[in-house]
Amino acid sequence: MMRALRNTWPQGAFLLALAAGTAEPGRAQPTQLAAQVRALNQQAQRRADLREFDAAALPLYNRAWRLAQAAHNDTLVGRHAYHAGRSYYNLVRLDSAVFLLRLSWQASWRAQDLAQVISAGNFLMLTYGDQGRPDSVRAMLSRLRALYPRTRPRTEARARLDNVLAGHYQDQGNYARALDYRLAQLAYERQTHDTVGTSVALTNIGELFYLQGQSRQAIRYKLDGLRLAEQTPAMRTTLPQLHAMLGKTYLEAGLPDSARLHYEAGLRQLGSAPDPAASAYLHAELSSVLTRQGKLALARQHSQQAVAAVANSEDLDTKTTVYFYAGEVELKARNYAAARRYLRQSYDLALRVQNKDRYEAITRLLAEAEAGTGHYAEAYRLRSYSAALLDSAHVGEGQRAMAAMEARYQNQDKQRQIQLLKLETQARAAEATRQRRATYWALAGVGGLLLLLGLIGYLLRQRQRTATLLAQQNARLAEANQTKAQLFSIISHDLRAPVSSLFQMLEIMLDAPDLLDEEARNAQVVHLRQTSRDLLATMDELLVWSKNQLDRLDLVGENVALPVLLAELHALYAPLAQQKHLDLQISCPPNLHRRTDPNFLRVILRNLLQNAVKFTPPGGQVRLDAEAGPGAAVTLRVRDTGPGMAASQLEQMLNAPASSSAHGLGLRLTQEFVRRLGGTLRAESVPGAGSVFAVVV
């Protein structure tokens, strides 16, 4: 209840305490006018430093900004138009406040006084909010946010902007973000050794902790702010507000004695000529504390003083709170008629305030007062509406109170019947509740069982999938092992045996030709030809088999860094090129990348480089160049200065069928790998001038 009914008086001044401008005047004016401007500026600034933004100070502020305007001093126009705008705001003359605050904003912009621009923008935003202009509020907030990058950290302008944004996020309920801005503001105030600003910043940080329910932290910061304010003469007028805020925090922390001490200290600080709103707030809060402590006589004295303080006030929010606390005191004292009178006034004002939290609390106590004075029909209506506004934590209490009101509302003859029906209803409700709980537990058990069965089924399916996948992988591994065995068999038997036979026969013919007569030599030549033919057939079969295996290879695309790949190839073939006295060069842009299978691409380039090095005579040159092609393609060229070949020979080599024995296995594999990568292989050759093989992938 206390949180719902707390007044905004203690906090309002502190959220705006850094708003007054302090910029220096602009350029000097003619002597007489400049002297008038200085004198009037000093008078107006003294009133502003004392926070006198009221009807008494307003004419002085208006004369000050008009005279500064005549002197073309935008800095002072911005400052005193702002003071006048604040005064109009406090007098609830919002249109005049908007006019002068806009004037302050524009003049301060011209003077490049960002601190004053921010202060004017902040009060413009508040005034727009009171006028019910949310679009203007959002537009001004957007402008103020845009100033943040233009202000340097730990400067006056940044501190004011931190204050504005902290207030905005605090109003939005984003207390964590508001706290960041408040802490930044505190760092600036401490850096400048401004005791007033530091005290205000500490208090505002304490209020943020209070709003987050962290009473211990809130009390610590607010006490630090109060101690600093007590040491600063300029803060004496704010001490009642500081005590009020601390009292509110202690009360929320469950320490009513400490709260009472601070409320009483705040009243002492007000002195003989208190501010009516401040006096009303402190007396009302103190009466609530005393009511809780059972000191009703003293509580009634303070509530009556609060009522007297707001008699001529136009602050509906404060009057609503004061009348509520006065009614609460009378209700505790069982003075139902007086309680009904005060609470009815609070109720009517709450309808105009349109605060549902406050409305519920007032309605609930007013229903009790109406019942106490015998107005049961009205009490029943109010209690019904109060119960509808309560949250789930208060439903049971509200229903019991409503039932009591209903019983008193009915006539004496029907009371017993209502009581019996009520007991029967409660018994049925209890039975229904037990049945619902049993049903809920049964449904929960079935749901849990279904969930467990589903989980077991899912795990079994996963296990089955894993077993199937392992079986498939094992089958592929067995097939790969069989393929490897076949390959080793071909190499060791079908290839090695013929080659060994060829080598032995050639060695005999070269090393011991006399051992063979003409007929034996011819027989050996025939045998050599047959062996070579068999070896070639075996190679063709191996090529066909290799192609079939190649079709079963899966491409694995990666983001290939071509400079790295080409550097590896250069390191691989540099020794062979050096041995043949060849100039091997690599050229590739440093950031060239291509998404492809690096292993396929590496085999392609190795075969082309190997052929180029092999067929280029000593003293020649071999180059491997890479460049970005159209779109995302890449072109790789292998150039050599070898013997070259005729166009017909080149075409026959590139278009030869797989079964042809005219060309080697390497070129056929290269063509097949390029095809698998989705690329193209082109070749150019000039007899005596070398060849160029280009791969586009």
TrEMBL record:
Statement: the UniProt record of this protein carries the keyword Transferase: yes
SMART domains: HATPase_c, HisKA
Keyword annotations from UniProtKB, A to Z: Kinase, Membrane, Phosphoprotein, Transferase, Transmembrane, Transmembrane helix, Two-component regulatory system
Catalytic activity annotation: ATP + protein L-histidine = ADP + protein N-phospho-L-histidine
Recorded GO MF terms: phosphorelay sensor kinase activity
SUPFAM superfamilies documented for this protein: ATPase domain of HSP90 chaperone/DNA topoisomerase II/histidine kinase, Homodimeric domain of signal transducing histidine kinase, TPR-like
Annotated Histidine kinase domain residues: 490-697
EC number: 2.7.13.3
Transmembrane segments: 440-460
InterPro entries listed in its UniProt record: HATPase_C_sf, HATPase_dom, His_kinase_dom, HisK_dim/P_dom, HisK_dim/P_sf, Sensor_HK_Regulatory, Sig_transdc_His_kin-like_C, TPR-like_helical_dom_sf
Record PANTHER family: HISTIDINE KINASE 1 (PTHR43711:SF1), TWO-COMPONENT HISTIDINE KINASE (PTHR43711)
Full protein name: histidine kinase
Organism this protein belongs to: Hymenobacter telluris
